[in-house]
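Table S2 (text version). Query chain:
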Amino acid sequence: MIDGGKRILIIGYGEMGHAMEYLLGPTHTVSIWDRHPVAGHEPVDLEAAAAAADFIIYCVPASPIGELADRILPSLAGHSLSLSVAKGLDESGRSVARIFEDVYADRFDYGLLYGPMISEELRAGRPGFAQLGTRTPALYRQAASLFSGSGLYLEYTRDICGISWAAVLKNVYAILFGAADALDLGDNMRGFLAVAAMHEMDAIITRLGGSARTSHHLAGLGDLITTATSAGSHHHALGGMLVRGERGSIRGEGVHTLAMVRDYGLIDENDFPLLRLVHRIVDDPVNIGNRIGDYLCQLGKQAASVGRAGSRSG
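Corresponding C-alpha cell output:
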C-alpha cells in the first residue's frame, strides 16, 4: 500500500470510475471491480476487495447499487465508508440516499458526492467541484481527505436526501435545455429555463424531505448549469435528439427518472408544469416547439391573471 494512503475499491469502471482512478490512484491503493474484465487491471474478487477497503466508491448507475451493496454487506470492515457518484433512481424508485439508508441502516457509514465534475475534464487535470453529503462533519473530513490535492474541490452538506434529489432532477431538466438549444430558442430562453427549473427543483426537494435551498448549491444549480449547457452532456444531447426525431437512443438517468416518477407516483407533476413538459416531450416527442410555446402562453396567462387580481385588490 502507498505510504499514508488508503485502500480504495472502485465499483464500476465507466467514465466516472476512470475519473476516480485518475484522482485517487497517485496517492492511494486502488482496486477496481466491474462486471466485465477491466483491461490492464488484475481481476479482483468483489467481496474480498470490499473486506480490505477503507473506502468503497460506487461508480455505477443507481439501479444496481442496492444489489451490490447487499452483496458486499457481510464483508465490509467496520470502519469502511461507502461513497456514490450515481445520479438516478433504482427500479423501485429509490434515490441513492434511500438505497444506502435501507441497506446500511446504522451499521455502516456512507456519503454522496455530487456536483459539476465532468469525468473528461477531471481526467484532463481540470478542476471539479462537488458537495460531499455525510451524516457528520467528522465523516466529511474523513472522506474529503481522500481528495486532498487531487483537483476535486469539496464542500460539506448534511442534507443527503436533498443533494440526492438535486442530482436526480438536474438530469431531467437538462433534457429541456437541449431541446431549446436544438430549436434555436436563444440565450434568453436558456436564462428563463434556469430560473424555472431551479424554482421547481427547490419545491420538489423540500417536499421530498430535503432542505430548502439545497438546490442552489453545487449538487443542484452548479451541476444543472454544467449538465444543461455542456456540449458533451449526455442529457443535453438527448433534448436535441428528441427535436430531430432520433428516438432509438433516448436513454439515460433522466429518462429513467421520469419513468420511475410516473410508475411510483413520486412527484405530482400537476404541481410542476416544467417537469410535466419534459415528461411529455420524452414520451411523445412531436411538435416540441409548439409544446414549449403552449407552456409559455400558459405562463403569460397566469401572470396576467395575477396582475388583474393585484389591480383589483389595490
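Notes on Table S2: The first strand starts at residue 7 and ends at 11. The mean pLDDT is 93.
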